[in-house]
Amino acid sequence: MMDSPRTAVSNPPVQPMESNLTERDLIRRSATSELPTPERQLTPVAKLIDVSKCIGCKACQSACVEWNDTHPEIGANVGYYTNPHDLTEDMFTLMRFTEWVNPETDNLEWLIRKDGCMHCADPGCLKACPAPGAIVQYSNGIVDFVHENCIGCGYCIKGCPFNIPRISKVDHRAYKCTLCSDRVAVGQGPACAKACPTQAIVFGTKEDMKKHADDRIADLKSRGYANAGLYDPPGVGGTHVMYVLHHNDKPHIYADLPDDPKISGVVQAWKGVTKYTGLAAMGLVAAGAILHGVFGRANRVQPEDEENAEKLVDSAAGHREDA
Amino acid sequence: MSEPWDVESDDAIHRGPPVTVDRYGRGKRVNHWITACSLILLLLSGMALFHPSLFFLTGLFGGGQNTRMLHPWIGVVLFVSFYIFFFQLWKANLFTKADMGWFTGIRDVIGGHEERLPEMGKYNAGQKVIFWAMALLIIALIATGILIWDQYFYDYTSIETKRFAVLIHAVSAVLIICVFIVHVYAAIWTRGTIRAMTRGSVTGGWAWRHHRKWLRELAGRGRIDPAE
Questions:
Q1: B157-194 pLDDT, tens per residue?
Q2: I want to staple A204 with a disulfide (CB 3.0 to 4.6 A). Which of A208, B55, B106, B118 is the partner?
Q3: What is the mean predicted confidence (pLDDT) over A3-29?
Q4: Do the bridges between strand A241-245 and strand A45-50 make them parallel or antiparallel, or are there none, so unpaired?
């Protein structure tokens, strides 16, 4: 068996398989400083979503719900196709529909972007997470939530540059797309990619996906989309879910896809300088108090203080009695 | 004639001998210890989420999920108890001219040479700094704490607002812990102080040494053995 699956279209074998994705393949683990270096490097994988080939059928959403056995609430139609209206703890992927008038051609373009976890190489959720082992990153690039370690604090939401994680109101744990880590572990591609009828979603090694994207971009350019390109944002170290966008010069038109996502400077300050200077400040104050306590003399009330107090009180009381 | 700001309702001198001075009534002491216990619990649960090396502290609260759930509620208890206390104490904590002398003589304060400093009222300048710092930091902590109390308030603010809130919350927490350490240490170092918050009274000598202006005010106004 290959260390990472090369495609999402193959059918699984009928005999049971061992998981090929284990604790030993972790390259990052939340709130954990000493992680053993993995003995092997898995081939990095990626999901490529070609927005120009998407027909908006939502087969990916259905496949996601089915594979992950979630039960999204049945929502209401409020006049647009995006449904449910947002990602939820039961809906890890969502087709976001945007009606955009291209100012150059005056054509209405119906942009459909499959939203979900981007599996950043530098994951903000993992950086923000305070619970050891609640968020992990495998050497193949998958960023996964380990629910039994999750404490439900919502720090991952603050760390994420894409607004992806959702906390369940039922079990108070965070949920998001796993890139079907449980399928990838046994040589299969993600359920959404397998279900996609137009191959708008494809899966394989990150290298292969970039090559495939190059072909698609060349095709789009030949058909007049001069700004077609690959969305693999360097601000988060690249991602293991990438888009082919026909208008890669303005990702924000695709339902607010960030133009240049990176982990917020506020989050960096909170998780970086605040933590170290904070611990140092508290330590210094405590050490100062201890040193002063050990080497300084205690501030004790002296016998003459008691005498003076007595005199003062006696004379005041005496005045009162005289009056 | 109105009472000076310093003199609070429970304050009174008992002639003894030995002379003792009532400093805190039962209500204030109960309130102080509720505040103190909540602050310590908040410190432990908050530090558990502040740095991974301290995550083990969640064990004291029955695990990470419980820690996350309990911390904000303890914060509410602290906020309420502190602010009841605040409104009883704030007048006596207004800064006066004499406090400047205390600040400029900070070396003598640390060295324990109070005879070189101006006479202090019920609270010295350092205690006042601690009082106002606590008051401000608790406001900052409860306000930012509510913003990041996602279980109930997630929908009311943007993620960007929550990012700032969590940063301010962490910085304020560090500061209040520093203030807390100074507060506890000063109470230990200045011998005879802790009984003010346990028994409610101090010795006459303690009041003479550390808060002479207050003692004079009490004596001058005849707040002596009011029960007799």
A1: 999 999 999 999 999 999 999 999 999 999 999 999 99
A2: A208
A3: 90
A4: parallel
Instruction: Tell me, yes or no, whether A150 lies in a domain.
Output: yes
Range(s) of the domain holding residue A281: 273-322
Q: What is the CATH number of the domain that holds A185?
A: 3.30.70.20
* Residues A249, A238 contacting (CB under 8 angstroms): no
H or E segment at A292? Answer: helix A273-295
Separation of alpha carbons A178 and A176, rounded Å: 6
Beta strands in chain B (DSSP E): 12-14, 20-22, 201-203
Measured distance CA(A147)–CA(A178) in Å, rounded: 12
User: What amino acid positions of B are annotated as catalytic residues?
Assistant: 183
What total of structural domains would you count in chain A? 2
Q: Which of A270, A309, A312 sits opposite B167 (nearest CB)?
A: A270
Residues A68 and A89 in one domain: yes
B228: confidence class by pLDDT, cuts 50, 70, 90: very low
Q: Which of B15, B67, B209 sits opposite A151 (nearest CB)?
A: B67
A contacts of B110 (beta carbons < 8 Å): 292, 296
| Residue A315 sits in the same domain as residue A188 | no
Domain over B26-89+124-191 is classified CATH 3.20.20.60: no
Regarding pTM above 0.90, the answer is yes
CA nearest A151 in B: which residue? B65
In this structure, are A202 and A298 located in the same domain? no
Give the phi and the psi of residue A289 in degrees, each rounded to 5.
-65, -45
A5 part of a folded domain: no
| ipTM for this prediction | 0.93
Does the pLDDT value for residue B15 go beyond 60? yes
Domain definitions of chain B by residue range: 26-89+124-191
- Note whether A54 and A157 are same-domain residues: yes
